[in-house]
Amino acid sequence: MTARHPQQGVALLAMLALIAMGTAWFTVSRLQAMTGDYTIANRNHNAAVLARAKQALIGHVAMQAAKQGETDPGRLPCPEAAGSAGSGLEGATASTCTFPAVGRLPWRTVGIEKLLDAAGEPLWYVVASGWALGANLVINSNCTSDATMACATGLLTVDGVKDTVALIIAPGPAMSVAASTGCTARNQSRSAPAPTMDARDYVECYSTATSAFVTAAASTSFNDQVLKITAAELLPAIEAAIADRIQHERAPLIKSAYSGGAWSSTSVLPFAAVFADPTFVPTALAPASNFRGVAGTFQGLPPLTYAFTASPGSASACSPTPCTPTPCTTGSDAFCDPGFVAWTGGTLAGTAGGTLNAGTSTCTSAGTPTTLTCTIYSWDLFNSNASVTLTLSATASNVGMALRQINATVPIGGLDTTFNPPYGYTMTAGASTINANGSATLVLSARVAAGTGIPLGVSAVCGLLSQLLGLTCYRRTISVPMALLSDHALVDPSNTTHNWFARNRWPQLSYYAVAQGLSPSPPSGTRCCGTACVPANANPCLMVGYHPDSGKQWGLWLLGGAKIGTQARPPTLIGDLLEGANADLDTTFTLQGGAALLPNKTFNDRIAVVGSN
Predict the structure, then answer these.
(1) Percentage of residues in the chain with pLDDT exceeding 90?
(2) Which of 185, 345, 502, 557 pairs with 86 at a CA distance of 20 to 30 A?
């Protein structure tokens, strides 16, 4: 019996060992489970704040792009200014960036509170060089597909793919970064926020030389949680803002360009240019058709050619006087053509003072840009070299194929400036017109001063009556510069309110259509469309599917989005730019068509209406 006690003791020890092992296993398993739970919770927290920051950032960019006066629509804010960390200005964007721009998220600027990751650290932020101030920005829908665009070449490379405009980063706790592929060893050191903060103490495994970043790496080298914003994700918000600005800023000016004031009160919209490769090449001569309207063309590229690069463009006052605008250099870009709109002639009629001989008083044009020179022959009963008050009707070609506006502050050489001071002439209200062939006739009243005529003696150029009376004939000359028909504000490259559109190359994504009845050559001879015509619908208006006023549109400006599927950029066919009903060359368009949302997008056109009944 006594031999059993040692055996019972051994069994008891074995049982205790098993219990201890089970307890240890349970404890370790529970600790591992708790650690896993904490990791999941931390990552979920970080994912939530990163998503919120991304949403706010995209919303901020869209809101800024839609603002009138924003000259860099689509730009992202720079990171927080380094000197703002820990101050009352913390969270505000820096005014300019030094690239690659890596810093803390400018939460105050984008309109959210200071978001913290699971480690209690503020979010960090990286912005691509082609998308923030500090660079010569060019942002449009081709930024994802045209390697020649500054915005495309300025993208960030993330995990080997170059498609990212910005990164938002939850930096996590400081760590001792071990050297590995793409990661430089660093013992991260963090202290109170200060201008001397080093991004490498928060963000791991990136290259300032190549703007290359990663979203994952060896755990011994990397603990950031990274959310990227791609150009494809940001561009729809920017496109919507640009389309809205076309509708509210540009469309009203196009609609009123050739009506009201000196123009006839009847609205007329210019012809379109023939659709062709619209690529903007700053150093090469563009195809002759680009952005130059063509008579009888009702759909295609918008007419955006310009002639001058300096004052007095876009109806600004010509000061000091006299002044001479600087013509643009042909071939400098796709829009420049100082000879496209040109004086072709004029007629003179005398209204008071000395008697003008309309038969021999003539106007001729010369130069690029053209100057209209009118030679005036007159006589008076007292041989007093009297003043002559006259009406000039001057005709210019291609006005209805472009966007011009009358600039009545431009001096006309040879006029009496005491008559209708300070320029010596007035434009006759409502008398100037766009003709059916796209030319324009401007009508003005003016006076040449007494004593300024060159006496010719008795001469046939002053007419038979002056010869019979033996009266002296006088000759005077006036010179009308082409700048009287200045570049419209929308196309004037010196106009800081509107030149952002061409500078950002949005014309490359634009398509323009005009109802024939509102063009310079309406079929019925009366400019109207739809029910506004007599008889009703003699000239159909354009139609826009899903628009509440479909069938009433005078003109449209369509904005294509980023290319979809096999579309080519730059577009050589309309189907490379637009989709569905918008690309079939008829007068019916649509606001919707196919899938419009990522990732199955098959339609991304946007439409602004340029006038309607």
Answers:
(1) 70
(2) 185
Out of 101-115, 190-204, 479-493, pick the least confident.
Answer: 190-204
The amino acid sitting at 6 is: P
Contact in structure between 596 and 590 (CB atoms under 8 Å): no
HSE value, Cβ hemisphere, 13 Å, CA-based, for 577: 29
Q: How far apart are CA 338 and CA 360, in angstroms?
A: 30
SS3 166: strand
pLDDT (tens digit per residue) in 408-431: 888 899 999 999 888 899 999 999
Q: What's the gap between Cα 301 and its chain centre?
A: 15
- Torsion angles phi and psi, residue 526, rounded to 5: -115, 130
Strands 433-434, 543-545: pairing kind: unpaired
320 burial via Cβ count (<10 Å: 0-12, 13-18, 19+) = exposed
Rama region for 141: left / alpha / beta (φ>0; ψ in -120 to 50; rest): alpha
Taking the alpha carbons of 229, 233, 236, 239 in that order, is the dihedral positive or negative?
A: positive
Give me the pLDDT at residue 158, please.
Answer: 95
0.85 cut: is pTM over it? yes
Q: Which tokens in the block code for residue 2? A: 């006594």
Query: Would you say how long the chain is, in residues?
Result: 613
Residue 182 in this model has a pLDDT that exceeds 60: yes
Using CA atoms, how far apart are residues 260 and 82, in angstroms rounded to an integer? 53
Sign of CA dihedral 399, 402, 405, 409: negative
SS3 letters across 539-577: CCCEEEECCCCCCCECEEEEECCCCCCCCCCCCCCHHHC
**8 Å CB contact between 559 and 243:** yes
* DSSP category for residue 215: S
| 306 closest CA partner among 405, 191, 172 | 405
pLDDT for the residue numbered 373: 97
Establish how many alpha carbons lie within 13 A of residue 441's alpha carbon, considering only the half-sphere containing its beta carbon: 14
* Cα gap 435→438, rounded to integer Å: 5
Instruction: Give start and end residues of each alpha helix (H) in 424-532.
Output: 464-468, 500-503
Q: What is the average pLDDT across 371-389?
A: 95
Give the H or E element holding residue 254.
Answer: helix 251-256
